[in-house]
């Protein structure tokens, strides 16, 4: 059969590639937020500043015998340098965020991106870690073990850093997270005597490692494996149904990968009952998240494409593209 007699295959291929493009249109922005262009230099700068300041503090404590005996001018200068490094590093990070948000939704998009990619996906990690660290810290302060709070805070940061690494599939984030967790745990044995040594060695070495590693490298894509040549396609039966494929495709191309129930109903031409059934199937498969609330005293249902849904749709499209290309090559 002549390929010119199969225009539908070309149209289907174009549609598949358009959907795949829509699926990944935010990927570079997400990575720009967590892995900005100058992240390595920023990490080396901040890690070096921590190692320098807290290393000197610990050295002066050993030399003078106590923190209070260090000349006040030296203490003020060291803290001023550390504050400058912290503020300037934060400014550089904010500039990176602003540039990334401008690519997606304009200069005012920073907070919406932070909410979407940091606060919402990881909010229970932040809240749980913060509450746990606060309660343990209050207990340690009350029992006269205030210096152990340093180890607790480092441990909390390590847990959050690890979760961020899993979220964006970054091996380097995971390595730094585990380093912070392990070093914080070991530091409980000597943080009372050498508090600044813990700060100099634990967080700062983590930042320095991140500066020397390839933060653009991911651990895995999170997608199901594609069929090997000769095995035939392994199409997801949940997605392959026309109505559910329409829903996932619409969500993949929507802003923030989400849409209202009424929007899906009206734009896709479903009845409310049919849409509810299809969404329930997708929710049971873990492909969408359904959130119900009230807006202006009226019920409101929001439907969002999950990470599992993105990965499954991507794998389905890859399989379909592979199948159609095979059909074209046989013609």
Instruction: Measure the end-to-end span.
Output: 5 Å
Task: Estimate the mean pLDDT confidence.
Answer: 75
Order of helices and strands: HHHHHHHHHHEHHEEH
Output the structural class: mainly alpha
What would the principal axes of the Cα set say about the shape?
elongated
Q: Level of helix content?
A: over 70%
The beta-strand count equals 3
Oligomer: single chain
Count of runs of 4 or more consecutive helical residues: 13
Number of structural domains: 2
Most strands sheet? 3 strands, antiparallel
- With strands numbered from the N-terminus, the spatial order across the biggest sheet is 1-3-2
Question: What's this entry about, in short?
Answer:
This protein has 331 residues and is mostly helical.
Give an account of the 3D structure.
This protein is mainly alpha-helical and 331 residues long. The protein has 2 domains: 3-22 and 227-330, Winged helix-like DNA-binding domain superfamily/Winged helix DNA-binding domain (Arc Repressor Mutant, subunit A, Orthogonal Bundle), CATH 1.10.10.10; 35-212, no CATH class. Helices cover 71% and strands 6% of the residues. Strands 1-3-2 form a 3-stranded antiparallel beta sheet. Helix 1 packs antiparallel against helix 13 (307-330), helix 5 runs antiparallel to helix 6 (148-168) and helix 7 (171-187) packs antiparallel against helix 8. The longest helix is centred in the N-terminal third of the chain and has 34 residues, at 72-105. It starts with 6 loop residues before the first helix and ends with a helix. Residues 1-7, 104-108 and 214-230 have low confidence and may be disordered.
């Amino acid at each position: 059969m002549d390929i010119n007699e199969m225009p539908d295959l070309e149209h289907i291929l174009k549609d598949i590639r358009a959907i795949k493009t829509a699926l990944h249109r935010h990927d570079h922005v997400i990575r720009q937020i967590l892995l900005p262009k100058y992240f390595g230099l920023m990490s080396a700068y901040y890690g070096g500043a921590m190692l320098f300041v807290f290393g000197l503090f610990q050295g002066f404590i050993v030399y003078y015998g106590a923190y209070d005996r260090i000349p006040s001018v030296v203490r003020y200068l060291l803290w001023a340098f550390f504050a400058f490094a912290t503020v300037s590093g934060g400014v550089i990070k904010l500039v990176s965020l602003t540039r990334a948000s401008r690519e997606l939704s304009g200069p005012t998009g920073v907070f919406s991106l932070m909410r979407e990619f940091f606060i919402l996906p990881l909010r229970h990690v932040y809240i749980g870690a913060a509450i746990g660290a606060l309660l343990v810290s209050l207990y340690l302060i009350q029992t006269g073990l205030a210096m152990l709070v340093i180890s607790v805070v480092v441990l909390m940061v390590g847990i959050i850093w690890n979760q961020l690494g899993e979220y964006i599939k970054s091996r380097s984030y995971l390595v730094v997270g585990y380093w912070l967790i392990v070093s914080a745990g070991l530091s409980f044995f000597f943080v009372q005597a050498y508090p600044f040594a813990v700060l100099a060695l634990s967080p700062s070495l983590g930042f320095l490692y991140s500066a020397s590693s390839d933060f653009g490298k991911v651990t895995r894509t999170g997608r199901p494996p594609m069929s090997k040549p000769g095995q035939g396609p392994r199409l997801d039966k949940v997605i392959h149904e026309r109505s559910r494929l329409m829903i996932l495709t619409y969500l993949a191309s929507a802003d923030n990968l989400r849409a209202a129930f009424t929007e899906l109903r009206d734009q896709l031409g479903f009845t409310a009952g049919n849409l509810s059934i299809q969404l329930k199937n997708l929710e049971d498969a873990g492909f969408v998240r359904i959130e119900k609330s009230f807006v202006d005293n009226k019920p409101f249902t929001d439907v969002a494409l999950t990470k599992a849904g993105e990965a499954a749709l991507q794998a389905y499209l890859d399989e379909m593209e592979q199948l159609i290309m095979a059909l074209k090559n046989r013609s």
